[in-house]
Inverse folding.
């Protein structure tokens, strides 16, 4: 089995960090309640 190159390691590590960031963003959005009362558009 050949040792991975530095370039290959950085590519795979970058993909791993990107997928973690995407999972975090999607988890935050899934917790948001779409039926939650929102502030009115106009004051008064």
């Amino acid at each position: 089995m050949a040792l991975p190159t530095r370039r290959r390691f950085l590519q795979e590590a970058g993909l791993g960090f990107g997928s973690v960031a995407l999972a975090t963003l999607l988890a935050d959005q899934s917790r948001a309640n779409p039926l939650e009362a929102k502030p009115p558009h106009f004051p008064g």
In short: The helical segments are 6-31.
